[in-house]
Amino acid sequence: MINPYRAPIDAEDSAELADNPSAEFLVTRPQLRFAESKFLLYRCGGRLTLASFVMIALSFLVAFDGLLPLGPSAATGGFQVPMVLRQLAVMGLATIVYLGLIVGVRKTSRQQLATHGIVEGAGLSVRVSDGLLQWAGPNGNFTTPLPQTRPIRTRKGLIVVVDRDLYLFIPKDAAFTGGRYREFVRAVEA
Fold first, then answer.
1. Radius of gyration over alpha carbons of the chain, in Å?
2. 174: which residues sit within 8 A by CB, 6+ positions away?
3. What angle do CA 121, 123, 127 make, to 5 degrees?
4. Which chain regions cross the lipid bilayer (predicted)?
């Protein structure tokens, strides 16, 4: 889509834009939530998978009375806890474990995003130039070498992990110069 209010581009500048793709966009709350969930899966994926296997095993143990070594059973004549309550207890425990695994990472990543000006309503400009990923926002200009980044393609855009707890989300519907979304992704992944 052509922006009718944009100043005309000189022929000399168009060659530079083709070599240096860029994107401009406003950060929205749905974008932040989507990118955060994908980033947390990327960052904590192994721990969450391990915790899931442990919770599934615990769920099987709780489902069958004879497999659970603790507590009275029907065979000994003791008090029996209904299976529904046991399953609810396992689900509650799983929720606590999952939140415990991600809450620290989520808190530090949100702080990093706020420090770098990546907050709801902020206007960001991201540019790929000379092997560097450069972005500008309300808190200043930042640069990182492309080989130190980790791009992650999603259905709604591109997440670029810049640092351990810092990421950028470039939506597919951003205003791109120097090419389309695909050219921007190729430049980041190159």
1. 24
2. 23, 24, 25, 157, 181
3. 145
4. 40-64, 84-105
